[in-house]
Amino acid sequence: MLCQDALARLQDAAVFWSVGSGTAAQVIEAACDCLTAGIDSPTLGILAGISPVKGEENDELRRWLEGALSELSLDYYGEGSRESEEEALRLMARRLLAQAITPRDLTSWAYRFISHDGTPLAAELIALDNAYDLVDAVHDWQPHTSTETSKIDADVVGEAKRLLGDATTAEKD
Predict the structure, then answer these.
(1) Phi and psi dihedrals of 133, rounded to 5?
(2) Closest-CA residue to 157 (of 86, 85, 93)
(3) CB-based contacts of 67: which residues, under 8 Å, 6+ apart?
(4) End-to-end CA distance of the chain
(5) What is the SS3 assignment for 124?
(6) Tell me: the pLDDT tens digits for 76-116?
(7) Dist CA 108 CA 60 (whole Å)
(8) Minimum mean pLDDT among 3-7, 130-134, 153-157: which range?
């Protein structure tokens, strides 16, 4: 694994953990990957050595994560913070545009992990998740054609582009 890839994976894992979408074990594994890629710092070694024992790993992660990320010149987002929610939304939007996830995956994720109480940046995605649910309800939760959700899909893609600051491309869709 390349150094930059390992660092990006650690950053992403930390962001997703901070919004409850990722696990402490994923952050610890990403820290181990950094060490394997030849990246080292005192606190990174401690972070990689945290035992992912269910129930205890989050406390240890809270204790060491900010320092490890700082030593590696990575961004730290506080657990449950608006900043972490906004960065996680951007990461998920990038995954959508890279076709690693579907539009429905993005809206469902936003509804589950950001919710109505979270950052206002997620509001449109949450509304679009409700639109998907409405189509499902109209069809009594039975399979339906993709053309019935294609407009919603396009709106989700446009919203993802907007979240990433690509307003001109988002308007064309």
Answers:
(1) -60, -35
(2) 93
(3) 43
(4) 36
(5) helix
(6) 999 999 999 999 999 999 999 999 999 999 999 999 999 88
(7) 30
(8) 130-134
